[in-house]
Design goal:
acetylation; AMP-bd_C_sf; GMP Synthetase, Chain A, domain 3; magnesium; 660 residues; ATP binding; seven-stranded mixed β-sheet; AMP binding; Rossmann fold; alpha/beta; disordered C terminus; binds 5'-O-[(S)-ethoxy(hydroxy)phosphoryl]adenosine; 22% strand
Length: 660
């Protein structure tokens, strides 16, 4: 395919995928979002967002929808006041839905608990009273380091209710990672558990907190939920949840806070070692989390059972387990454990048990399900599923189709949702009753959102062209900065296209001939081979579309002749056969990529490996693979979910190496 036009180089648009799946008439007729939503937003963006904000309860109405005069620091719904927790809990009880189940919680060992909105209101009120008794007030920071148990959600909502900011730190992070996050935002309180269940076994969690707070003077108290009955060391600052919270009053009057009152900080990794504390505020964040959840997932509070498989340690858990869904009066499943405990059909068993109708997960998990085999979901009744979602990385068309056929019964629309910790809520996604979906494409900005693909000069590329994804209009749930580092906020997101005033997302993207957007991975994951920019994602997608390949990771390794050469690491499918790793088979794979994308994308080298190095959130650590590909000593592996993976890869390479 041709080089993009416009000025300067841009990503070559190589992979072609032409299948489309229009919504069924029945789905379109009942959908929350109709085609007019696009028209409405286009006609008057601010009026459109004001209408979305009106879906919430405001104690005081705003006087101005958007104040962008202090860009890049936005103010949305200026002068408005609301309580975020009241919007997610109390108002549903007041409107007569106290007996509706909010959360069907499923513990990893098989224990479960159904929590109604009335009960949620009592639990959150008790937790808020308890936190207040420990001296937590508006704008104080509270670290939450917990597994996926109901108390984690009660804690987040209790903070929101008091106007305190939570900083949830993923329970799989180390003591050191927790320490830097607690100290960066001077947390006053840490909420944790004695231990957590992981793959069928209890593991202690509190020792990591003890280590993290040992020298953290900011921390006054550690509130501990008993989950596993592990032996714990007890310190003066420690308080048991069941001793403090259970004896509190279950009545608590929420106070209304300013629309721009801070709601939470969530740390995310950047290009330097120091994590960025992404700051979100109240009114705009909740408006967009709620609006997107209602329209993208088509939630019907009376009939749907929703399940987002993320952890609350990530933004997806914040926006699509806690704030978006609860503001829409969801009935949802929250699952504590891993997908293969005690068996590889656990998710499908849960879908069947609760009649889950909306399921939102990540491509890495979909590819894992593929690896385990289609016969596993086939054993369960998944007919309740009517909308499927994907988030976190580009979903390759092969996985998309597998998901549609083996999970969605060949008919549930799939929404591929692009967004970031920084954007707070979904930005690019098809609307399931309006847009004909395309495997692998997030397609178009949601109504009210401005996103474009531009070249190096910030000029929008034409249909068929590739470049950088930018957001060209402020949006309600945008980050309001990086905690304590205004300079870094401006530098990271606003300096690249400062002249145009665009937010730079850091992702490569392209338009197809219909003008739909395809995400191509982070720009640092884009390779440059003989002057052609090729996305690692496109090559990975091509590899995974071969019948013998379960998973693939591609890196650009420096190459004397071509600048970068493409090096691929592949995991073969279970049934691939003994020859699948042999020289002929590797050649066939290289030819397959050449056929799918073009000879330019043919990997220089393909290595068969037993596992890929992934972070705890499932992102492939290409940096480590690049070390292997460039014959360097492998760098820091401390953020890997399983640090033995690199040893496995090195061992596997002795047999699987192939070059020509
Ligand atoms: C990537 C997760 C392609 C992207 C919500 C983004 C995606 C980063 C998609 C943010 C998608 C997320 N298609 N890429 N549907 N969704 N990404 O902050 O590179 O953990 O910049 O937020 O994930 O990751 P984060």
């Amino acid at each position: 395919m041709s080089q993009s036009q416009g000025q300067g180089p841009a990503l070559d648009n190589l992979l072609t995928e032409s299948r489309t799946f229009p919504p069924s008439e029945d789905f379109a007729a009942q959908a929350n979002a109709k085609p007019e939503l696009y028209e409405e937003a286009k006609a008057d963006r601010e009026a459109f967002w004001a209408k979305q904000a009106e879906r919430l309860h405001w104690d005081t109405k705003w006087s101005q929808v958007l104040d962008w005069s202090d860009a890049p620091f936005a103010k949305w719904f200026v002068g408005g006041k609301l309580n975020v927790a009241y919007n997610c809990v109390d108002r549903h009880v007041e409107s007569g839905h106290g007996e509706q189940v909010a959360i069907h919680w499923e513990g990893e060992p098989g224990d479960s608990r159904a929590i109604t909105y009335a009960e949620l209101q009592r639990e959150v009120s008790k937790a808020a009273n308890a936190l207040a008794s420990l001296g937590v007030g508006a704008e104080d920071r509270v670290a939450i380091y917990m597994p996926m148990i109901p108390e984690a959600i009660f804690s987040m909502l209790a903070c929101a209710r008091l106007g305190a900011m939570h900083s949830v730190v993923f329970g799989g992070f180390s003591a050191e990672a927790l320490r830097t996050r607690i100290e960066d935002s001077s947390c006053k309180l840490v909420i944790t558990t004695d231990g957590q269940y992981r793959r069928g076994n209890p593991f202690p969690l509190k020792p990591a907190v003890d280590e993290a707070v040992a020298n953290a003077d900011c921390v006054e108290k550690v509130l501990v939920v008993k989950r596993t009955d592990s032996d714990v060391e007890w310190n003066d600052r420690d308080v048991w949840w069941h001793e403090l919270v259970d004896s509190q009053s279950d009545q608590h009057t929420p106070e209304a806070f300013d629309s721009e009152h801070p709601l939470f900080i969530l740390y995310t990794s950047g290009t330097t070692g120091k994590p960025k504390g992404i700051l979100h505020t109240s009114g705009g964040y909740l408006t967009q989390a709620s609006y997107t959840h209602h329209n993208v997932f088509d939630l019907k509070p009376e009939t749907d059972v929703y399940w987002c498989t993320a952890d609350i340690g990530w933004v997806t858990g914040h926006s699509y387990i806690v704030y978006g869904p609860l503001s829409n009066r969801v009935t949802q499943v929250v699952y504590e454990g891993t997908p293969n405990t005690p068996h590889e059909g656990r998710h499908w068993e849960i879908v069947q048990k609760y009649g889950v109708s909306i399921y939102y997960t990540a491509p890495t998990l979909i590819r894992t399900f593929m690896k385990w085999g289609a016969d596993i979901p086939a054993k369960y009744d998944l007919s309740s599923l009517r909308v499927l979602g994907s988030v976190g990385e580009p979903i390759n068309p092969e996985a998309w189709i597998w998901y549609r056929e083996n999970v969605g019964g060949g008919k549930a629309p799939i929404v591929d949702t692009w967004w970031q910790t920084e954007t707070g809520a979904i930005m690019i996604s098809p609307l399931p009753g309006v847009v004909s979906t395309k495997p692998g494409s997030a397609q178009r900005p949601l109504p009210g959102i401005g996103a474009k693909v531009v070249n190096d000069e910030g000029v929008e590329v034409p249909a068929g062209g590739g470049g950088y994804l930018v957001l060209d209009e402020p949006w309600p749930s945008m980050l309001r900065g990086i905690w304590g580092d205004e300079e870094r906020y401006r530098d990271t997101y606003w300096s690249r296209f400062a002249d145009q005033g665009f937010y730079f997302a850091g992702d490569g993207a392209k338009y197809d001939d219909d003008g739909d957007i395809w995400l191509l991975g982070r720009v640092d994951d884009v390779m440059n081979v003989s002057g052609h920019r090729i996305s690692t994602t496109e090559v990975e997608s091509a590899l995974v579309s071969h019948p013998t390949v379960a998973e693939a990771a591609v890196v650009g390794a420096s190459d004397e002749t071509t600048g970068q050469g493409i090096v691929a690491f592949v995991i073969l499918r279970g049934g691939a056969g003994a020859d699948a790793g042999g020289a002929d088979a590797i050649k066939a794979l290289r030819d397959h990529v050449a056929k799918e994308i073009g000879p330019i994308a043919k990997p220089r080298q393909i290595m068969v490996v037993p596992e890929l190095p992934k972070t705890r959130s499932g992102k492939i650590m290409r940096r480590l693979l690049r070390d292997v590909a460039e014959n360097r000593q492998v760098g820091d592996v401390t953020t890997l979910a399983d640090s033995s993976v690199m040893d496995l890869i090195s061992a596997g390479l002795q047999s699987g190496k192939s070059e020509d």
